[in-house]
Amino acid sequence: MSGSRKYVFNPLTLSYEVKEDSKLTGLAKSLSFLAVTLVVTILILVIQVSLGFDLPKTAILRKKNAGLTSRVTLLNRQLEQHNKNLYALQVRDDGIYRSIFGMNAIPEEVRNAGFSGINRYSEYDGTLKDAAQKLDRLIKKTYIQSKSFDEVSLLSKRMEEMVMCIPAIPPMVPDKSKYHFSSPFGWRFHPIYHTQKMHTGVDLVMDEGTPLYATGDGVVHTVKSEATGYGRQIVIDHGFGYKTRYAHMQKVILEVGTPVKRGDCVGLSGNSGSSTGAHLHYEVLYKGNQVNPANYYDLSMTPEEYLTMIRSYKKEE
């Protein structure tokens, strides 16, 4: 079996002669070279590790990880900025848009509600987990805000209807020669119970049988007749959170469920219930709470202007 062939110069013959090595010798040399190479490589790696240098593959992975971490950090900052922008919209929505249309603000616990499931973020870790949580919260808040704007938009289309439903005119012809105030809205000394008591409406003294008018469009919600308290009364539900109450009446001419237009006569003033004389006790309720009726009507108009206004409402029907 011949090995590798090489030529060697012979000084005696002054010529090159063929010298053959056996394959075994060649294999031994190759193995020796590989062994030396392996030892040198191991020594280089040991020196790198001992000196704190990363292995090539580790260095590449570390560089990629640093790049990804930087991008996730930037994403977190962007999510935080978007969250601030969304919060500004939420403040305007609750404080302006929803308030204008008499809508309740969306509770914080609803806006900030998280996602269920304790293992939802188990596949994430560290910065990436934080980003995933922020993104989910932002998506949820955006959805709720979008639905809120849908509600506001729908209600804005009913603005004309809303304007006609708000109790915005006096409940009787404002002829100053035929009425006067006896008790405003607020705390007062009660004329019957002789104690400090909250007066939840306004008392307007007038002759019995004075016509009383609906101050806004709506539907008759309640008709009652009691020996004490409010006596004979009617409550009109105007929608959009508003109701009005007329108490101590002589007569109610409408029934529960009857649609009412602003300017319709609802009955006659009287002296029923716990009353010391003929008058109208008039209340405005907003979202279930009595509010000052004086903020909802203008008594400076003349009787002629008032009656003309009422007739104009009739023509629009």
How would you portray this structure in words?
A hairpin with a 2-residue loop joins strand 9 and strand 10. The protein has helices spanning 23-50, 56-100, 108-111, 126-156, 159-165, 303-316; strands spanning 4-10, 15-21, 179-183, 186-189, 196-199, 202-206, 211-213, 218-225, 232-239, 242-247, 249-252, 259-260, 265-269, 279-286, 289-291. Helix content is 41%, strand content 25%. Helix 2 runs parallel beside helix 4. It is built from six helices and 15 strands. The radius of gyration is 45 Å and the shape is rod-shaped. It has three domains: 4-50; 56-157; 169-316, Glucose Permease (Domain IIA). The chain is of the alpha+beta class. The strands form four sheets. Strands 3, 6, 8, 9, 10, 12, 14 and 15 form an eight-stranded antiparallel sheet that branches. A three-stranded antiparallel sheet has the order 7-13-11, with no helix packed on it.
Please render the helix and strand layout as text.
Layout: E1 4-10, E2 15-21, H1 23-50, H2 56-100, H3 108-111, H4 126-156, H5 159-165, E3 179-183, E4 186-189, E5 196-199, E6 202-206, E7 211-213, E8 218-225, E9 232-239, E10 242-247, E11 249-252, E12 259-260, E13 265-269, E14 279-286, E15 289-291, H6 303-316
Antiparallel strand pairs: 1-2, 3-6, 4-5, 6-14, 7-13, 8-9, 8-12, 9-10, 10-14, 11-13, 14-15
Helix pairs in contact: 2-4
Low-confidence stretches: none
Domain count? 3
What is the assigned CATH homologous superfamily of the largest domain?
A: Glucose Permease (Domain IIA)
CATH architecture of the largest domain: Distorted Sandwich
Q: Kindly identify the CATH topology of the largest domain.
A: Glucose Permease (Domain IIA)
Structural class: alpha+beta
What is the overall number of helices? 6
How would you describe the shape? rod-shaped
CATH class of the largest domain: Mainly Beta
Q: How do the SSEs run, as a string of H and E?
A: EEHHHHHEEEEEEEEEEEEEH
Query: What's the main sheet like?
Result: 8 strands, antiparallel
Rounded mean pLDDT score: 83
